[in-house]
Specification:
Chain lengths: 329, 274
């Protein structure tokens, strides 16, 4: 929040027509010395309530994050706290930005995100439109369509690992039967299909969120809009294009942004299904952070990749906060 | 006539779409009921002629499933308990008071929620080994707090926002203290919200894989999600066992999900729609 000049007129929130001076408002409060406000007053109570949360976040989130940033600037393979810190160095970042693996990982992350989010959006939106119609058993159908959201990511990876099995898996059987492929695809062992496989599971876990959000958005559109459009002679398609879509624009943008950030950080699905392989074909930045630190035992490099993801997600968070302020306040 | 055709088409479309989307869950159930000699058959069987619970028996006999489930339950309860105790207070403060720093705390919590876990796990692992907490359930509980507290605080703030302030003011007039008003008036009124937040937090903790996989190295302290992730990389895969174990690990979540259904949206968007 930007600071305002204390004497500047402000709008009275309850009746927006009335403009009062903030100075005036303040003068009506009884004067309390600073110590009183800090120890006894409402403000003190507000701070006491916040204290456990602030303390917790400081200890388990902020301090570790700062440590991780620190590790990324040291030559560390396996970091032990208390041991003498190495000198400040940019080696990890130099090694990272000079390696092809990093840039390949950036590329993998981008394709994985775009494919997964786009399909989740399309499938989720379409399903929601369908389930918004009136029919018998609608509640059950909605429950069944949203259920994948509740399946633990590791379980989702296991189910799809079985469906994608090259010899006895269901997907290859269906695709062969329909004639889309001529011979079984080695989903998890060959690079291109592996990325597709990982995206499939992500889409399956991610589309229910779009269903729930779209349904909520659809319910909020007043029926009058459609009635008056019908009076004006608009067809169903026109009503969809000019009423439904604009009304859902905000909620879909929000859902997309949240899903993008979820996919960006996704670990369990990829790790269980492919472990980042084959030949780094599914190694997103999140997976690379982990592999460098815990499989190759190069915590410095791992932390450097992690800091890159931190910067990206911070930028996304800022965009997100700006956007949600603009659209939802 | 045209209307009936329309209806029929709608039902066919719904069955088709929901059928395909739901199919993997059915496939898990179907495979878990297959006998060993039914696994490697071509074409795949959509309904097994003689379903058996053999895979379930084998999974429980050969792996410490009960231990894993129990560990997950402990972690879920502890993470939810601690987080809720912290979040109820913070959520209430954010909802009712606007002091210097409230807004920053709100954004700090949002940012923590968006933090990549793969970055956080590196320093946390270092601290956990320093504190000799590796291979204990405490390590996972503490790590879970990093994402459950931000989430629960925002979700609870939303619920507190929906409870009118006037009720607390009435309590003040009757002589209640600030804390008294919170404990005796606001909390009882927001019990559905509290329950939903608790359920949601428990689901998050139950599903957690990254921290548990990293901090818990011997299989007697694994949580169920680590156990379920361990089938990969074994020499031979018996799909009926993988699916039986996965189904067992999912049942508690599905149960919680059904209880939560009405509150789903407030949880999914906690902190997003203000």
């Amino acid at each position: 929040m930007q600071r305002r000049d204390p004497g500047a007129p402000v709008m009275c929130r309850k009746s927006p027509g009335i403009v009062v001076s903030k100075q005036l408002l303040r003068e009506r409060l009884p004067y309390r010395p600073l110590w009183w406000r800090l120890l006894r007053g409402t403000e003190a109570f507000a701070y006491v309530l916040m204290a456990p949360a602030i303390l917790t976040i400081a200890v388990v989130v902020l301090y570790p994050t700062l440590t991780a940033i620190d590790i990324s600037f040291r030559r560390v393979d396996i970091y032990t706290p208390g041991s003498a810190r190495g000198p400040f160095t940019l080696t990890n970042y130099a090694r990272l930005f000079g390696s092809t693996a990093f840039w390949q990982s950036v590329q993998v992350t981008l394709s994985y995100m775009v494919i997964s989010v786009a399909f989740a959006l399309l499938i989720g939106f379409g399903t929601a439109i369908l389930l918004h119609q009136r029919f018998r058993g609608r509640t059950l159908a909605r429950m069944m369509a949203v259920l994948p959201w509740a399946i633990p990511p590791v379980v989702a990876a296991n189910i799809w690992w079985w469906i994608l099995d090259p010899s006895f898996g269901l997907l290859n059987w269906v695709l062969l039967k329909v004639g889309l492929i001529k011979e079984p695809v080695n989903w998890i062992i060959s690079p291109g299909p592996a990325l597709a496989a990982v995206s499939m599971v992500t889409v399956w876990k991610g589309y229910p969120f779009f269903v729930v959000m779209t349904l909520a958005g659809l319910q909020a559109i007043p029926q009058d809009l459609y009635d008056s459009a019908a009076v004006d002679g608009a067809g169903r398609l026109a009503a969809f294009l000019h009423i439904t879509l604009p009304a859902l624009r905000q909620i879909l943008a929000l859902a997309t942004l949240l899903t993008v950030m979820w996919v960006f950080r996704e670990f369990a699905i990829i790790w269980v299904l492919t472990g980042g392989g084959p030949m780094r074909a599914t190694e997103t930045l999140a997976i690379m952070t982990y592999t460098e630190a815990f499989a190759h035992f190069r915590m410095g490099v791992g932390a450097a990749v992690g800091v890159v993801t931190l910067v990206i997600s911070t930028i996304a968070s800022i965009i997100f906060i700006r956007q949600s302020r603009k659209e939802f306040y | 006539m045209k209307r009936q055709v329309h209806r029929a088409m709608l039902y066919i479309l719904v069955t088709l779409v929901v059928g395909v989307l739901f199919f993997p869950v059915y496939w898990m159930l179907n495979t878990s009921l297959a006998a060993h000699d039914q696994l490697y058959v071509y074409p795949p069987r959509f309904v097994h002629p003689n379903p058996t619970l053999a895979a379930y028996v084998k999974v429980f006999r050969e792996r410490p499933m009960v231990r894993w489930l129990l560990n997950s339950l402990i972690v879920a309860l502890l993470s939810t308990g601690f987080s809720l105790a912290i979040s109820v207070l913070a959520g209430y403060s954010l909802s009712r008071y606007r002091v210097w720093g409230s807004e920053s705390l709100g954004y700090l919590l949002l940012a923590s929620r968006m933090l990549p876990g793969t970055l956080l796990v590196i320093p946390l692992f270092v601290f956990m080994s320093k504190l000799r907490l590796v291979n204990t359930l405490w390590s996972v509980t503490i790590a879970n707090i990093t994402f459950v507290v931000p989430f629960a605080t925002w979700m609870l703030k939303g619920y507190f926002d929906s409870i009118p302030r006037e009720l607390e003011e009435a309590a003040y007039i009757d002589g209640a203290s600030r804390l008294g008003a919170l404990v005796r008036v606001t909390l009882p009124l927001s019990s559905p919200g509290l329950a939903a937040t608790a359920l949601y937090s428990a689901i998050l903790a139950w599903d957690e894989y990254l921290f548990a996989r990293t901090f818990l190295t011997t299989n007697s302290v694994w949580t169920i999600s680590v156990g379920l992730g361990s089938f990969r990389g074994e020499y031979i895969t018996f799909w009926n066992e993988v699916m039986a174990a996965s189904l067992i690990g999912t049942v508690p979540i599905i149960f919680m999900f059904l209880l939560l259904e009405r509150h789903l949206i407030s949880g999914l968007t906690a902190g997003a729609v203000k």
